[in-house]
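## tool: complex_structure
## caller: assistant
## args:
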Amino acid sequence: MLPRVLRGGAWRRVALVGDSAPATVGVAIILAWVMLALLAPLIAPYPPNASDLSALAHATPSRTHWLGTDHLGRDLLSRILWGARPVLVIAPLAVLGAAAFGSLLGLVAGYRGGWIGLVITRACDIVLSFPVIILYMIILAHFGSSAWNIIAVLTLTKAPIIARIVRGMTLDLREREYVAAAKMRGESSLYIMLVEILPNARGPLFVDMCLRTGYNVIIIGVLGFLGIGLPPPDPDWGGMVKDTYGMMMVWPHMALVPCAAISSLVVGFNLLAVGLRELGLRD
Amino acid sequence: MARFVAKHVVFLLLTLFVVSFLVFTLNEYSPGAVARKILGAYATQEQVDLLTKQMGLDRPLLVRYVDYVRAAASGDLGQSARFKAPVREILAKHLANTALLASVAFACIVPLSMLLGVAAGMREGSRLDRGILIASTIVASIPEFALGVFLATVFVVWLGWLPGTATLVAGGGWSAAAQLVLPVAVIVLFDAGYVVSMIRASMVEVMQRPYIRTAVLKGLSFRRVVLRHAVRNAMITPITVIMLQINYLVAGVVVVETVFAYPGFGRMMLEAALFKDIALVEAGALVAALLAVVTNLLGDLAYMLLDPRIRA
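## result:
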């Protein structure tokens, strides 16, 4: 059966997005990037990793290379289009992972309480108090960096925030009559947590997930920039900046183009979050 | 008060223990790793085994961890494999550089975001409010490295007003102050966006309180109501958030230091992690955890001092 989040008024709420200017702009930006990423094999003028060193003589934007080429003579437009794919897969997947794992931790911590709750809360506090970028560097440098490792690291470090939010709401929701009614019916704890409590906590979670997707896009970019992101040669926006920002005095466009791409995508997610909050979808 | 401090000290110790144990286990689980790193890729397996034995690295993990903690507690953080120097000296040098960068940035972030946050939040929904909200959202959306690239394109490549690197070595005719401008600007822009939205939200909430209405109905000027009545109460929540900013500051600092080749703690940690300079990584992680928890504590303390209701 569908979870309650997807039933009922959900579509009416999606239509509401049009009422908020920031949300509309945000959705438009995100959809545009999703379309470009999906169509990359059809619309990219060159293969993303095809290097044409003779193009380096005119690396700046031209009629043959609309956005110019990078330092290896690879077409920037093609690499930007293909580079949208990993970001748009990894960022939402990591958010979903964090939401699922974090909600579970938060539900158990809030509903059960006791020493299990205490251990979960303390563990989350520790992760939250630590500058995670240091954690990313240590873990990814140690285990090597791949799409799955990045998703795993993002899931583990973002789950505590979700857990904290869900725990707070669970503490409040578990005292409600419908929870008492479910208990009376003899439902299991798992059923009560997932079917009675979780759906009522979805509002704040949804806004938070939009913001967090934006943050994840930033982090994926930062990891690429620091040299611990997706491995080359496949295009990755952060990695493209890393490879070329040393040549800014000569060819500033090589670093500017991927920077503009990643910034616009994050702006899209954050505007959507601002808009959703404005519309009051959080309650 | 005593209970409050005790609770935080216990949490501090717990955090330090968990962080150090995890990082230690991750790095030193396989006994040969440390010796292999010191001797290099061309050493024979016998040499590695011999050094491992000499350094006592073939003992169980827990025994080694206890040894490590004992040494660390007495101030001996080990030897950096990359710099061939005591970790303590290297850490101190880089931390001092980062402290300089972060404190200058912090000194700019707080007044700037207070000004913008209060200006936006005092009249919710006004044109000024929406302008500041959208602008700060957009600025906070641009990753630090992209901000660095954008600013460098304008001020270094086009205008030639500022240097593109901040190595703090006086060279190329740029003073250390000129070198600091761009790194500080990037950190300020990225972090201020977030702090502004926090202060704005808090200000909006305070402006709806009954005592503000009373002050207005009493006939006080709007200016006086905002400055004397609202701002003080609106600053309580953001103070803790500003202290928590230290985490974001650290994240930003790592990137900014890499963009501008600044010889600070963040870049040192990145290079140490990539080079697998184990002693340096472990010590750096400890320092980062210590810093984070202490600023948390300071945030809570500030909260208590500002809000008499919590003190009681």
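## assistant note: The two ends of chain B are 10 Å apart (CA to CA). The beta strands of chain B are 79-80, 85-86. Handing back to user.
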